[in-house]
Target: Glycerophosphoinositol inositolphosphodiesterase GDPD2 isoform X5
Amino acid sequence: MGESPGCCSVWAHCLHCLYSCHWKKCPKDRTQTSQVKFLFQHWGHWMDWSPAFLLVISLLVTYASLLLLLALLLRLCGQPLCLHTAHKVLLLLIILLVAAGLVGLEVQWRQEWHSLRLSLQATAPFLHIGAVAGITLLAWPVADTFYRIHQRGPKILLLLLFFGVALAIYLVPLFISSACIMEPKDLPPRPELMGHRGAPMLAPENTLMSLRKTAECGAVVFETDVMVSSDGIPFLMHDERLTRTTDVASVFPHRVNSHSSDFSWTELKRLNVGAWFLQRRPFWGAKQLSGPDRKDAENQTVPALKEILKEAEAHNLSVMFDLRRPPRNHTYHDTFVNQTLETVLSSGVPQAMVLWLPDEDRAHVQQQAPQMRQIYGHLGGHSTERPQFLNLPYQDLPLLDIKALHQDNVSVNLFVVNKPWLFSLLWCAGVDSVTTNDCQLLQQMRYPVWLIPPQTYLMMWIITNCVSILLLLWTFLLQRRCAKERERTGKNFLPSPHFSPPLAFPLLTPYMPLSPGLETAVLLTRINAFIME
Model:
């Protein structure tokens, strides 16, 4: 049965038009586009930028890959590669954007290189399989080009480049080091959870409700931020301004820009710290609150440190807090540490329940409260004794020797960890605890996202590479057979624009025995014949 030439012609024509942006008829598109609005036009809305960043990168990679695929298909169809100016401009913008991103990462967010390293540790085994698949698929056009080139020099150069890249990809696993490539029996205990400002995806941050939700999540520590009011009362607040998490604009409209510590305790108790949470959720993907929880959130007020300590003791939670120095004109600018320490000691809770994080006057704090656990933000701290507990950003993991620290009885907490893949990697690395915004998600994890025994990964590596090598050899042998067939018949299966295909080709019938390579060549010739018509 004869094939419809119109279908193939239209298909190839569409590919060419999409690649070159040339259309015979292009009606004006009058569809309206929505205005781009920034997600952070209102202060106080927090968002994890990684999904948006990954989305942009995925779109750019997809766009570039689509152009590459179209170029490959056009090459197979014998069409000229004429990239439209719009595509050239977009590709140039992509290159500039990537370059600017790399420069910005190096200048402004240098520690994020460690984040990239961690993400590669979590994905490298699977990226390797994808890279092997990609180089295997690339073998077909490379082999086709190799047997069409007549000059010896370019042929050798092409072969060396291709197989050099393939060999490098095959040997990549020798340099892959991931904590999750380990025997299941060697998996360390699951890290404990610390609620970052409580459970901020379930309740307003730094509130009594957030503390209770932290306990319900199974966390062991309530991490918070403490300031000292103008009359000396330590209270929970993260921001230097109250506008994000309170209704200060309606209660004290003329003091919206005042420092949080410039308010007295009586004034602070008048503020509501829960209504904002219902109006604009600080985290995307957070579930809507139930009726009782909504009512509870609406009634939240600024809690004092002493209230939090009492509530934490009732829920068997430890408390760790950052202590923020008041402004220079504040009454307790120089004595805020003493004021906070006195509040902790007078609360009556066990000293061991408090994890002291501030570095200011640490020696004095240790002398007054020897049972209080001292937490350091870096190795050594300001004490002559070795730290027993480290609180570090998760980006520092590549710089840490967890096993050596454990041998010295040093516990390690890393912050802020919200994603299961990152939690899994830290779990495999042996981290003792993590600070998280999403305790309800991480609490449900009973096993790392992936865990591969070394022998299993070795078998995966060998099998993947062997299959790829066999496919490469098969591809080159098949293309060699096609090349000999072309030499025998004298046919050019990627014709020039002036090529006029033989009449016999479109009339080939199933009764004519064809080799696989010849069948492919015939199909390409038919497509080009239809295009020329």
About this structure: The beta strands are 192-196, 221-228, 234-236, 318-323, 354-356, 373-374, 389-393, 411-415, 433-436.
